[in-house]
């Protein structure tokens, strides 16, 4: 299926989700994540959700990472350059919501993508082969491309996979995708 059509479909599906169902499914996704073979790593990148877009609430995953004493990385997006910078999330890290509704660190200790072991990836839709559809700006594809060859990419989705998504050679596939009901490995 074409990405443009999928973006419209999944934005509409998300729009119809209640706050209660978002919280419940986000907790289920975090609980599913505990089953992944990723917990021996050190550096974990997590996205902070855009509330207006009804993204997966990663607060539950954040608590798991903190409880396991992992190094947590969050990003700051530069819409002019099309790149993301990544910062270690510390107790004194100040977060500010950008004009795009993205909670981001104001400053901090910058971490290179090559150091990051596990990346939790936001998405609108994914397919049975691990291809994903985001918002279409390519920020995550450019970021994932810079990660080390052993990095693990984990998508988080409220919905089940599409049979197939049209993808381009530069699109970076996921290793796993977690839904409230299951984990898919690719």
From TrEMBL:
Keywords: ATP-binding, Ligase, Magnesium, Metal-binding, Nucleotide-binding. GO terms for biological process: folic acid-containing compound biosynthetic process; tetrahydrofolate interconversion. One of its GO terms (molecular function) is 5-formyltetrahydrofolate cyclo-ligase activity. It comes from Aequorivita soesokkakensis. The lineage of its organism: Bacteria, Pseudomonadati, Bacteroidota, Flavobacteriia, Flavobacteriales. ATP binds at residues 3-7, 132-140. This is 5-formyltetrahydrofolate cyclo-ligase. It comes from the Bacteria. It catalyses: (6S)-5-formyl-5,6,7,8-tetrahydrofolate + ATP = (6R)-5,10-methenyltetrahydrofolate + ADP + phosphate.
């Amino acid at each position: 299926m074409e990405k443009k059509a999928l973006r419209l479909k999944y934005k509409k599906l998300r729009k119809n989700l209640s706050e209660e169902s978002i919280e419940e499914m986000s907790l289920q996704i975090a609980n599913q994540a505990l089953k992944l073979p990723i917990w021996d790593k050190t550096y974990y990148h997590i996205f902070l959700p855009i509330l207006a877009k009804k993204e997966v609430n990663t607060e539950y995953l954040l608590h798991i990472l903190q409880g396991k004493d992992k190094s947590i990385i969050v990003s700051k997006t530069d819409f002019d350059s099309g790149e993301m910078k990544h910062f270690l999330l510390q107790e004194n890290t100040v977060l500010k919501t950008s004009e795009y509704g993205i909670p981001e660190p104001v400053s901090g200790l910058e971490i290179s993508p090559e150091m990051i072991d596990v990346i939790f990836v936001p998405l609108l839709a994914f397919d049975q082969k691990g291809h994903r559809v985001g918002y279409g700006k390519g920020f995550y594809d450019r970021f994932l491309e810079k990660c080390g060859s052993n990095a693990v990419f984990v998508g988080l989705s409220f919905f089940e996979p599409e049979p197939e998504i049209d993808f381009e050679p530069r699109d970076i596939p996921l290793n796993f995708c977690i839904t409230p009901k299951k984990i898919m490995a690719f």
